[in-house]
Amino acid sequence: MTAAGGLPAFAHDALGKSEALGTVATICDVCFWKCGAVAHLRDGKPWKIEGNALDPLSEGRLCPRGTGGVGAHYDANRLKWPLIRKGERGQEQWVRATWEEALQTIADRMSKLKADYGPESMALFTHGLGGSFFKHTMHAYGTPNIAAPSYSQCRGPRDVGFTLTFGEGVSTPERTDIANARCLVLIGSHLGENMHNTQVQEFSHAIERGASIIVVDPRFSVAAGKAKHYLPIKPGTDMALLLAWMNVLVKEELFDKEYVEAYGYGFDAFAAHIAQYTPDWAYPKTGIEPSVIRDTAREMARHRPASLVHPGRHVTWYGDDAQRSRAIALLNALLGSWGRKGGFYYPASVDIPAYRYPDYPTPSRPKADNPGNKYPFADGALTNGIRDATTTGKPYPIKGWMVYATNLLEAMPNREETIRAIQELDLMVVVDVIPSEIAGWADVVLPEAIYLERYDDLHLSWFRQPFVGLRQPVVEPPDDQKPGWWIARELATKLGLERFYPWTHIEDYLRARVESAGLSFDELKKHGVILGPKEPLYFDEGVPAEFYTPSGKIEFYSPQLEAAGFDPVPKFTAHEQPPPGAFRLLYGRSPVHSFSRTQTNPVLSEMENENEVWLNEDIAGRYGLRSGDYVRLKNSEGTTSNPVRVKATQRIRGDCVYMTHGFGHSARGIFPKYKKGASDGQLITKYEVDPLMGGTGMNMTFVTLELEA
Amino acid sequence: MSEYTTTNSNPFVDMSHQVWAWEIPVYLFLGGLVAGMMVISGYFLLTGRWRDPRSACHALPLWSLVLLSLGMLALFLDLEHKLYVWRLYLTFEVTSPMSWGSWILLLVYPALLANLFLTPPERLRDRSPRIADVSSRMQAQTSTVTAIAVVNIGLGILVGIYTGILLSSLGARPLWSSGLLGPLFLVSGVSTAAALVHMLAEVPEERAFSARADIGLLVTELLFIVLFLIGLMNASKVHQEAASLLLGGPFTAVFWVLVVGLGLLVPIVIQSLAVARRIGHTPVAPLLVIAGGLVFRFVMVNAGQLSHWTPT
Amino acid sequence: MARFGMVIDTAKCVGCMDCVVACKTENDVPDGFCRDWIATEVTGSFPELSMEIRSERCNMCDNPPCVYCCPTGASHVSEYGKLVQITNEKCIGCKACLAACPYGARFTHPDGYADKCTFCEHRLKEGKEPACVSVCPTYCMYFGDLDDPNSEVSRLLESRQSKTLLPEAGTQPRIYFLTDEPK
Question: Among B78, B80, B172, whose Cβ lies nearest the Cβ of C65?
């Protein structure tokens, strides 16, 4: 893909054109994958975005969100200037402010909080690369309470389950060797609708190479359409299937004996425990026939070790998600896929030293999210823990929130709890790019420049091909928006923390770091990506087979779980099922949207303008509903959604409904999308907390259909 | 069991995006009417009716010019790239019935003007001695009369038939896939023209003649409609589905009640009675024929645009 | 001269609409219209289902009814690649071509002329592939010269089973969808 001289081919084409064309390499931020992108300008304005051919994550091809990223610059609903609340919180009534006024307001209140309650009373919720300098400012200020919803509302349980088994998590981008898998099992993963770019590309390569695909999903997803085996599992019963699969592999001695022998600990106890979980036992629970369970287990074994049971990403479903993820880890361990080609590889990153800052002050109190270590295996901060601490004042009061780039009212379950917590605050600051629901509850709203208009910290991902990536501005922000690094720096200065920002402009910081690693910052600016040396990926390439568990081995049986009072080998728990006439609410991703942050992007909203509720066609018929009719969903607590369009389809079981997340906006500032479609975030008031690590299982909402008059 | 979804928002797939709206049916109607008037006018010339100063001959050319211009205006209004309309006249695209039509329509104006000068209306003759003089000299030469007649009949047939050929050449709209569409539009046009002549005629014999002619034309039109539907019903599935738009589908009532019932059958009956002197000649029948002709064009254009090959 | 066409492997397509977005930005396709789109067909009843996802656009037919019906020659077959193209300045906006296309590939551009996929001719002339082909994250789209037996598209048609859309309409489309499993 590169022309002579190492420049991507299109860079040559862009030169010497008669129109004022330019290209700038940067990193996409429409989701959190951080693909390398090249923005094309026409007369200084963003025209289109293509992938950066040098970028190993995207291989020069972006997903539809990245391709549609120009729309974020032209979005008429963007936040334009700082806002200070007038009226009550949540009323979305603002006074326009200067940056000086806004930042001074925040700094003054933060200083007061520090004096009255201590710096630990300030919490930061953050998501994405852009949060880096906000974290830095908050650490400098002295609070330990920094959390991302991606932990306890998304992949936290998965990484805990894997860490308990292999001693390491799955990380992001997932260390899944999909391209080389001969058998790929997707259990609750809707790859192809979930557009994690690298994974979808690899999925396609796997299909091309004739990989055997097994999909387990209550909905006939796009991936199911490509599967050799589609298992229409009853929602809530995935653990039973996983245990039964393991049962077959052990009973029929199809697992990787040498691998287990060499690296496993506690296998005999494990085998004894799962002997009870036969396919016949699993059948009435899951609805999957025993012969199918056996056939698919044997299929996985046939292709091992290149048999990959994908651990998923958003696994916060039922409250036992860490144990379910551990079951997936154990299944992979039986197949011998961890550390092997076609399974899980060992990623590496480019070693770029951190910037030398003064030491952060040591907080006098530990973080407040997990008092008494109630969730003993939580290895990340819990957003819901901070929320609880804010509401209760225990273990100590949290009186200030800063929220960066995450719409907590859509991301966290039970928005009334979030609002109740916010009402306890003396200070609520939101940094965002659109007037999101959470921004509507702030005291001060700070408009950030979008990714096309700013620098961010260096992108150093752990991946099969180490690389460093640079996000740099392509165009000026259209109004008074500022980049996050500048906001964080200005705030720190106003807080008297200048010493933590010895550099003035982020370019100085970036250049210093890059050059300290012996790399050229100018080359990074030009190409957007610098590749690092490739490292071994698999055990047979020289990766040491070391497992950071207490035993130093793959723990089929986990004494540390036992000691903490949890099941050392996963057990099946029957989860509550919907009452007659109700449906379990399932939600997922649209390939053209990211969460609730892209619905006002004009390019992307044209692709999908509102979401639909998938309803089994036969069930729909009984209600007299057809595709295109509108219906409201009501949860067991009486909360009713906006009218949402019905998709009556054969592609889903009759006991659940499904819709894509991110619609049904209730923020009035998001005017054209106000109340378009339904919001699962609004309906999810019930949730189950994972006792191991505090994750919030959010697939426990049951809804009934309210027909429109 | 099959589900089909598409994200295509273009016209013909997204039915809310209609491509041709009222302008085209209105033009088709007026064009057909004028075509018929040219044929009838030519026929009247050849059979010497022009000698009677009260003959409809003297009204037809001016009516034709006005109605045709209105039709052309509707056509122009339909264009999305109006400023480029002259592009039609820089080329002749032999495979495009629309190209044929645009050139035919260009030739129609001089033909109508010649006919106007040959048999001008009395008021025009009185007002302008020059026109009266030209008219007399043209009328004096049989060959001129014949030539003008033949040209008007010829161009009238072309105008009346090309629109049906145009629609039938758009195979993507299965409702229009019939070789009969051209002749059907021509006959329909001439029947509306005969109805108009029936109303304009001052000479009782001419009135009766046009009524008899109209009956014949309406019966022929009815026959062509039946053959048209039979043809579709015996073709492929998409053609059967297209025909069913008129046979049980959303256009059934409008088509059979307004177009066939009130636009064809009732006028046949009324005019037959009138011709058999059971009742007096009435403008009711011709008005129904004319209205029916207009509704017929709307049904064909709208239903045609709904008929399709791709599933929706 | 070449005769360009496309081969699309529906086994890999996930219907993500990347091709639609890329086309929209590359070609400034106006709001509310599209030059390419995703069609999905599902057959069977739950859970015995099969699904085909297709990225569709103008098929650059060898027997193009949209060219025959054009009264000004605006809709024509170009020398370059034997592509069906529209010369905007010749188009009067009569919309006969919209009516002539059985695939719904054409629309009226707000500026007045008929518009549709051009196979990104401007990119082809720079040695690039159409935007949709270049962006596709599943690499399911192939573009090339159908008259060259050694081109990737020709070799795919040789080795795999394929179909075109509405072959019974007689338009002889030049976009082929592979219908068998890879390998």
Answer: B172
